[in-house]
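User: Hi! I'm working on a homework problem where we have to compare a predicted structure to a textbook description. Could you give me the structure for the chain below?
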Amino acid sequence: MTYSATLTRVEHYFDRSATQVWERLTSDAPVSGVRATVRAGRDRMRATMLDCLPGDLSGARILDAGCGAGQMVTELAARGADVVGVDISPALLEIAARRLLEDLRPRVTLMAGDMFATDLGTFDAVVAQDSMIYYRTPDLAEKLDILSRRSAQVVFTVAPRTPFLMAFFGMGKLFPRADRSPVMVPQDTARLSRAVAGNLREVQRVTSGFYISTCMELRP
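Assistant: Happy to help. Predicted structure tokens:
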């Protein structure tokens, strides 16, 4: 699928089909055993990504690209950063706004739209947890190049190219197009490294039940 078609599908899924699921998944509410492993994996990955950044972010301008329900936004703001949280789903942004602690609100701007939009300006760092996993390598490389020209550091996740995820990706293609949720596109990180400008390194892979994700860091 083209980038624009994938973006539309992601928007439809998160803003109309899966809002309540993600609200529970990103909270302390009870969830099924499978979703509990996904929650644990996402928590570990968020900590891994935050470890790539300084502990004190006072004065830093950070973009949370695909901020969803705002968990990363809160932690970045708590470290002193001025955070711009962008997501394609206004419904998820409403959840993020409700959850934001009062003392952190002056340092946070939440916006609905395309996380790659150039009019967002420049940043000291960009973080993107599980928001770039739906795009083909050429599209992802193009967008990463755009972000790296506007930031000294981009920390993001990809779905690694494992046998399990490739089987999952193949099964997703069997469903009628109208019935499909956005399916992650497993990435060959070596191929992605060749496709992007700058220095791309693999930080860590996190595996927790059905959650399998690799943290990457891109510097110009």
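For your comparison, note the following. The chain is about 40% helix and 20% strand. Residues 33-50 form the longest helix (18 residues). Good luck with the assignment!
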